[in-house]
Please model this.
Amino acid sequence: MLTIGKLGEAAGVKVPTIRYYEQIGLLPEPERSAGNQRLYDAKAHDRLAFIRHARDLGFPLEAIRDLLSLSDKPDQSCAAADIIATEQLAAVEARIARLTALKAELERMITQCAQGTIADCRVIEVLSDHALCAEDHRAKTGSGGAV
Amino acid sequence: MLTIGKLGEAAGVKVPTIRYYEQIGLLPEPERSAGNQRLYDAKAHDRLAFIRHARDLGFPLEAIRDLLSLSDKPDQSCAAADIIATEQLAAVEARIARLTALKAELERMITQCAQGTIADCRVIEVLSDHALCAEDHRAKTGSGGAV
DNA sequence: CCTAATGTCTCTAGCAGCTATAGCTTCAAG
DNA sequence: CTTGAAGCTATAGCTGCTAGAGACATTAGG
Model:
């Protein structure tokens, strides 16, 4: 049986985060010691590792909740899990595309900012003027996704 | 003179977001009409476009605040702006690297999830087991950065 | 000129996904 | 047996918005 601190260490998750996951129902309420401290078993560790890992991969907590509920009924088709992963893949590809354009833009800005004063510095100009953009940022108006 | 709605439309920023930027001091308080409605000029539009564009490029509001303060005193060296852009470039490159690894992982998961039941489904298995990882997610423990 | 439909106003609360603080209790080592 | 770390609950804060309530302003049509 692990205390919350040991569990956090083992799974690479901070202690308050574990309590937070319990609070929002991602982790079940664990046993308590005589002194009211949480005690976790190996199953809890696995579940937490699953969550941690999925978070690392960029899954939002809601998707993780879905995946966990799927894994609780292992006789069903995994199509649903596949859909969740596929959606994540699309989101990730979109982010990569955007970041790559962004990288080019920043490199261009930095190259052009060659020891002048801000008056000549295109960093600000590039950011002010849509027409100077290599990429069309306007396309994503309203999507508001994380970059 | 533009009303807040027209300005938002022109700059691709939602109305409450404009008011939010004003509230946190990124935009100056504009003139008001006789009926107390905000009225913006072309300068305000440029500044908002600057902010919008920088947000699109992934700059946090604090960096934007710095850039704006630089642009307010254009006689200084652009070295500071360059530093900000360079920092952002590094962050962007790190994000791209992480997302690319993540993409490979998701593709692997999806390929392995071949219409079976969840019991055989590797999506969940892959997420449960660190040892199956192509990439070392453990390295970034504690950084907690956006993906 | 009047009315109805927008648009705008302020204020407050909420979202994700944690993180930090305060003030207490419990546990393990020396 | 004491002390210091680790645990407990509860609450508030963070970023960058977004949504709602309820009241006033503006504009287009009849």
Residues 3, 14, 16-17, 20, 24, 33-37, 55, 60-62 of chain A lie near DNA strand C (CB under 10 Å from a C1'). Strands of chain A lie at 31-32, 38-39. Residues 79-140 of chain A form one domain.
